[in-house]
Specification:
Chain lengths: 145, 144
């Protein structure tokens, strides 16, 4: 079982297909869960503490906005953990932890430059494209076993 | 560790969120369930949720989609009842992808048809013991 980072990290379709095919999808909600359900969190109800932008310094420079560094504190460790990646080029509606375009650019860059196998895809628009979409993901994930 | 998952049905699936909820209520699992307009949210221990997911997927293997959720159901930081209304931030992504679920369901179904996997019936037939009648005939033949 390989750990596969998906972009967008909140995608229902990608997370489901990766899990369905026997691998582990690395998703942002998993990182969020650790922060919102941990009773030791010091600043409820916020799930991002002042520590997160400091952790984000590992992935982005100090002059980069704290929002990006805070998001990278969640997503960066997932990228480090990944054995492979699947990237959707036109992710459409993104909000919340996935709603920052500059963070998303950095996430895509880090996944692509990590040296792991990466599959680039676009959302399907019709039946034929959908079949190709599923078949390519299946072939890619089978190759990871 | 308790985890939370979204279970979302394709708009063309014949399984309703209420059907899934009833299945969970009738199961032996200690799981919290919240029904929504697009599916259900379940919360429980990791192992129990994993077992339950297998059962739920079997209800409609190509029409039910599952993803993780960070916040537990009814969490005050996300519940719109406590935030003055409006959809929570992650809903827009689910709404956007829900429109594509029928296409993905059909693609998964055609993928299954093309590659049905090992033929279970054949392997079961091979391993099945011979019938008593057949055994009886063999014994009679051997003895006589």
């Amino acid at each position: 079982m390989a750990k596969v980072i998906i972009y967008p990290t909140t995608s229902l379709i990608l997370a489901d297909l990766v899990d369905r095919m026997g691998h582990k999808a690395l998703v942002a909600p998993e990182a969020v869960r650790d922060r919102v359900t941990n009773p030791e969190i010091k600043s409820p109800p916020l799930n991002i503490t002042p520590e997160e932008p400091k952790k984000g310094l590992k992935y982005a420079a100090v002059d980069v906005p704290s929002g990006i560094r805070g998001r990278m504190a969640l997503i960066g460790p997932l990228i480090e953990e990944a054995d492979a990646g699947i990237i959707l080029d036109d992710p459409g509606v993104l909000t919340g932890c996935a709603g920052c375009n500059r963070t998303n650019e950095l996430v895509r860059l880090l996944i692509k430059t990590k040296g792991i196998p990466v599959l680039d895809l676009k959302y399907p628009r019709d039946d034929t494209e959908a079949r190709g979409f599923v078949a390519r993901i299946k072939a890619f994930l089978e190759g990871l076993k | 560790m308790r985890i939370t998952k979204y279970i979302i049905t394709s708009p063309e699936s014949e399984v309703l969120p209420s059907d899934i909820a009833m299945r969970i209520y009738g199961s032996q699992h200690d799981i919290n369930v919240k029904e929504t307009c697009f599916g259900i949210i379940i919360n429980g221990e990791e192992d129990e949720v994993a077992d339950l997911i297998k059962e739920i997927r079997a209800m409609d293997p190509t029409g039910i989609f599952i993803k993780d959720r960070g916040f537990p159901p009814g969490d005050l930081r996300r519940c719109r009842g406590h935030r003055g209304g409006g959809a929570r931030p992650g809903y827009y992504m689910i709404e956007s992808e829900s429109k594509l679920l029928p296409l993905i369901s059909k693609a998964l179904a055609s993928e299954e048809k093309a590659d049905p996997g090992p033929k279970e019936t054949e392997t079961i037939q091979k391993k099945r013991p011979i019938s008593i009648k057949k055994l009886d005939e063999i014994i009679k033949e051997e003895i006589s």
